[in-house]
Fold each of these.
Amino acid sequence: MQLPLEDYLSNRRSVKIMDMKGEAPSISELQKIMRIASRTPDHGKIVPWRFCVLPQENRSSFCSLVEKATRNRYSDPSPETVEKELSPFKKNLGIIILIFSPVDHFKIPLWEQQLTCGAVGMNILHAAHAYGYVAQWLTGWISDDQTINAKLGLQEQEKIAGYFYIGNSDQKPEDRARPNMSEIITSWEG
Ligand SMILES: Cc1cc2nc3c(=O)[nH]c(=O)nc-3n(C[C@H](O)[C@H](O)[C@H](O)COP(=O)(O)O)c2cc1C
């Protein structure tokens, strides 16, 4: 059931990967999600982002990469630590990696390009909900791991903006603390 937009925007929450289950989006749904997410304000129309999908059929080789990186990161990690790092990639979830891909431009500063990429990220979450899914945006150490990023084909100037995990959930997550609006809104007195 589609909620009116105001209800949806007022109540959307991320759902933790461990609470996701059920069907993952199909590749065609992921493509639609990325298309919607790309409808984002972009000063100069320079597209400072790209996506990398982690398809189900390549997850076991991605898990091998993550396992190797985990063993490099922690000296002699416990089997539980290794399993914890691998678990998001073993679940039946859609996974999109959002890559910040800055453009050397005479007029558009890096900061604005970063803002655009962040807006694409927020749009991925909304687009996932539009197809009835829930989602979570995570970075973590894995996003900065040089060996994994090299295997993902990142160029020197690129950076991972996030891994987006998309799945189903039959639970409504409790809300988290939200900003006190009176602390973040002022009205200019002239
Ligand atoms: C760029 C970015 C990176 C994040 N990385 C992590 C992370 O590595 N680990 C984590 O626990 N939460 C991380 N979060 C926060 C989660 O996305 C969290 O689910 C979210 O803030 C919950 O808020 P919401 O329910 O309003 O979506 C990150 C958020 C952003 C925007």
Amino acid sequence: MAPGPPLMTVTTIIAMIFDTDAFSLHRHQSPQADVTVLAPGLVLVRNALSEPEQKQLATQAQRLGRRKNGFRKADGTYNADAARGRIYERTTLLPRCFRSLCMRAVSVAMKEDEAMPSCEPSHCLINCYTSTKGLLWHRDIYANDGDDDHPIVNLSVGASCIFGVEDDRGHTRKVHLRSGDALLFGGPQRFAKHAVLKVMLDETPAWMRPEDCCRLSFTFREAWSVLGQEAHYREFQTARRWFEETQRKWRPGGALVSVDHA
Ligand SMILES: O=C(O)CCC(=O)C(=O)O
């Protein structure tokens, strides 16, 4: 009897039928991808996403952002701060291409950096920045930020930003992230202190329409321990004092901090 088709072929056919984007866009690494290991566990992949992939992510994020529980509250204002919307969702409820683009960046980073652990992303946080204001310094120490030392995988789309990462000696490294770049921090860098120092709304890819101008970040996390609790983490509205205190008190090796929307 002739052997059946190999599993990959079956998988590919299923992907073609149910998700043509995943099939057509994500089999290959973006041709210009350029990997730099900034430190063990901290990897920058320039041009991790091709232009069609960037557009695909932007279109999908904007579509999700317009939905209920998208980037805005019922009164029309952004749900994270005055000019930033956020969506926290499990990857199985997001377009399949999200997960495959994340996994591809992880595999590229793991090839170059033996300190980079694997990541099977359970959740993605999408941030939509519509002003030059970024995000304050913090470590990803909360229960929804990801288990163990699996990497946080950050894909940037749209306007550029200056991303800050602090090393063990407290020195700040500034990384200019452009549309299509990926930054991963895992293993020894999983809890690295980081910030979005500035969003550059005057530096956008040619394909981005002026009326859609924003920076989108897709941060993937392996956080199976909070699966099913997405509604709880959808709005990360905690008291500023609580946030500052938890950030100040947390020490490497400490448990993840649960979020009770204090
Ligand atoms: O938007 C970004 O690029 C960073 C997001 C971030 O630091 C976070 O969600 O913890």
